[in-house]
Specification:
Elements: H1 13-24, H2 34-48, H3 50-56, H4 61-82, H5 88-92, H6 94-107, H7 110-122, E1 125-128, E2 131-134, H8 138-145, H9 149-161
Antiparallel strand pairs: 1-2
Helix pairs in contact: 1-7, 2-4, 6-7
């Protein structure tokens, strides 16, 4: 079976960059970490007010200790959730993004191919709080993409040259 011909406009740099901004500006499903942030704020406030609570309640020292420990645990877990930034790779899954690229490649749909490819490339690095991590291994993803891998690499070269995307496959 031969690979389908590349559809017109599939490598148009301006259209690729527009697709990247479209992907990056999608509305998320919900505000990331808002529940964790609220839980952390309430728990920290309650923990800070523990000395006042100790003076006005008949709770034993042991009960107050465990209450404080629980509040601190909620603050730590809530704070960790507050810094969790959902990426497209996490919400859709890198495999689903690769499958979307393959489907668009097989259908020779230029718009879908541009969009799914930039979504996959943009999802390569996930930022969680102050750290960054890769969401997939380029070698494994290249194998999953099959004949579309060369196209994905060319799109990456174009977007890296324009300074709007970091390297993934072409590093």
């Amino acid at each position: 079976m031969t690979a389908p011909a590349l559809p017109d406009g599939a490598l148009d740099a301006a259209l690729l960059e527009a697709a990247l901004w479209e992907v990056r500006n999608e509305e998320p499903d919900g505000p990331p970490g808002s529940a964790g942030c609220a839980a952390a704020a309430v728990a920290l406030l309650a923990f800070v007010l523990m000395p006042v609570v100790a003076r006005v309640t008949p709770l034993s020292g042991s009960a107050l200790f465990w209450l404080g420990a629980g509040l601190l645990a909620v603050a730590v877990v809530g704070g960790a959730l507050a810094f969790h930034d959902r990426s497209p790779a996490e919400s859709e899954g890198a495999d689903a993004l690769a499958e979307a690229v393959r489907r668009a490649w097989d259908a020779a749909d230029a718009a879908a191919l541009r969009r799914s490819t930039v979504a996959l490339l943009d999802a390569y690095v996930e930022t969680v709080g102050p750290t960054r991590r890769r969401t997939f291994e380029p070698g494994e993803m290249r194998a999953r993409l099959g004949p579309a891998a060369a196209y994905v690499e060319e799109v990456e070269r174009i977007l890296v040259a324009r300074g709007v995307l970091g390297r993934c496959f072409t590093a």
